[in-house]
Structure formats: C-alpha cells, structure tokens
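Z., the sequence and structure:
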Amino acid sequence: MPHSVDDFATDDTFRFDFDAFIRGPPDVEAMTEACVSGDLTAVQSVFKTRWLDKAPDERLARDMFGAGGLCEAITQDDANLVQFLLSNVISMQSCHFRLATEYHAYSTLQLYLDRGFDINTYMNRMDPPALS
C-alpha cells in the first residue's frame, strides 16, 4: 500500500542545501572564485588565508582545495595561475592534462610537459593517452 504524505516527516529543520553541495566547502569556493578572476594575487591570498594560516588539522586536502581552481585556470589557459597552483597547492594529475587538451590550453600543456608529465600516460583503463 502506498504511503500517504502524513507518513513522511514534514519537519522543516532538515533541508539539504544542494547549492552548497555543488559549490563545495567555502574554502574551495573561495579558491575557485579567485581563479575565475584570473588574479594571481587574489589566488595567493586565498591560499595563504584559507590554507596556510589554518592549523594542519583544520585544512582540507591540498588536491581537494585546489582542484576547482586549477580547472578554471586551465580552461582560461592562464599559465601563471596553473604554475602557482601546481607549485604550491595541487599535484599534477592526468585528468587535468586531459582537460587542458580538450580546451587547447597549450601553455598549460607545456607546463605539464616541462614538469615531466608523460604524454603516453593512459587516462584510465578504457581511455588512451590524451594526445593520441
């Protein structure tokens, strides 16, 4: 027998915030917004205040903290931001190399190659290397 509406809680105290879920934690959102602006000084400031100045047990993982910002910097092919993020915030990952390939972000691709990225790395078990 189907449930009636009365069978379900109508308490307004629990509301899932889908917007916050999509945006991510406030620190990630701040880094992403700074990268969208293309302002290296703003990105450095966010990294300092939202990551370096925090106690180690309060910090997000570096890759989580910087992933959204790196994606934005790659789509804009902003070599200065990508260089800063790869040097200080996030590790080099093949999915970001693939994104740079898809967006024809040539300066980002060159940064990856200069940092020793192997262009023959398979993206995953089913996908060939990004440049094949």
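The first helix runs from residue 18 to 23. The two ends are 56 Å apart (CA to CA).

Let me know what you think.
H.
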